[in-house]
User: Fold this.
Amino acid sequence: MTAATRPEAELNILDPDTYANGDPSTFGLPLDYFDYLRAEHPVFLQKLPEDPLLIDEVWLVTRHADILAMDRDPSTFTVEDGPINVWAFTMGGIFGKPGMLNFDGDRHRRQRRIVNRGFRPSSVQKWEAKFRQYARRIVDHVLEQGAFDFVEEVSHRMPALALGDVLGVPEDDRRQFFAWMDMLAAPFETRVTRSVEEMLQALNNLIEYCRSLMQLRLQEPSDDVMTQMALAGSEHNLSEDEVIGNALLLVAGAAESTRTAISHGMHSLLQYPDQMAWLRERADDIPPSAIQEMVRIATPFTHLVRAPTRDVEIHGNQIKRGERIAMLFVSANFDPDAITDPRRFDLGRDPNPHFSFGQGPHSCLGKHVAASEIKILFEELLRRTRDIEQTGDVAYVRDNYARGVYSLPVNLDAA
Ligand code: HEM
Assistant:
């Protein structure tokens, strides 16, 4: 473990303001503080700011090796019966609609197998052709504008269009669908979600929408994940609540995270011109390492929560059965004991054992879809531009779980 200086002021790692006020020169993250925690407090009890949306306290685990061991041991560290993050509510808890991320063991494996049917290679191939069309459409639009907010015009639009196809949301409904989703994904950000009531209303609307979409897809099956889940439901493998729970999981997790990776990825390219030049040279076929590095520095979800199924001791800390433990992915992704020279934004990095997609039985089911969207988008963008320049400050979303970028003003010159 590398030596780390004790920070002057104590920082609350799970305060939404910690990320809202992040330092853009360190990817918006308190990297010195993470170094200090990994060295001095690999496990500690973090009190959360008083907020009805947050649980009171959580054990934080900060080292890559410890998180890897936990994530891969669901019989000791379960996701069941509790929130998956430090928010005080879960979709399962409030509305009785649990998805696969709320279960371990056989129930998890069964749901994961069924939803995975929606990601068949033939579907993915069709989606990729559509992703290319969407990326071209987005680039056409921003080329006309010249100066614009990258987050609004590019990062928001690509996953919304792409996931519309993946989930099977008809084009006319997508604007409303993703407006609800945005509120759900950013409950602490008053520029997006004005009140808790508004967020709960959005969640309710999404549940009702997913219910009717499920019926639609039973009548008009298509190449999408909702069709596969609805068909599985009708074969009695998946209850209506399970279909809706998994649809909500995709809605809540898939678009926001991809958008975040695109935004942080672009911001880092703007900050490191050598990496921008490296990527431009490879814009005809961007290598996987580049996408993985963008996803690492973005770490779209700062943490996920587990609870021990028995009393455990980690680095001298006694943690009781049922207490909450947050695996701080965002710290693991900058742990020098696992990632060489972690503060370097290095698009050729290989290996890159980052935690942004998780590494255990719940590891992201959509990671290939996300990587494909990001690759295609940057290929189109870089091929058709000569220069992209940042024209104002980056602003981050106020949240402690989904580490979004709120705005990133840029100007571009056509190739
Ligand atoms: C850059 C984009 C994305 C990131 C960073 C991301 C991250 C994650 C993480 C951290 C988990 C939980 C891992 C764990 O608990 O160990 C997860 C699970 C999941 N993700 Fe993603 N995700 C992304 C995009 C997507 C997309 C595009 C989809 C679907 C189209 C998707 C579908 C899922 C599903 C279904 C699960 C639950 C898997 C399970 O419980 O077995 N994700 N994702």
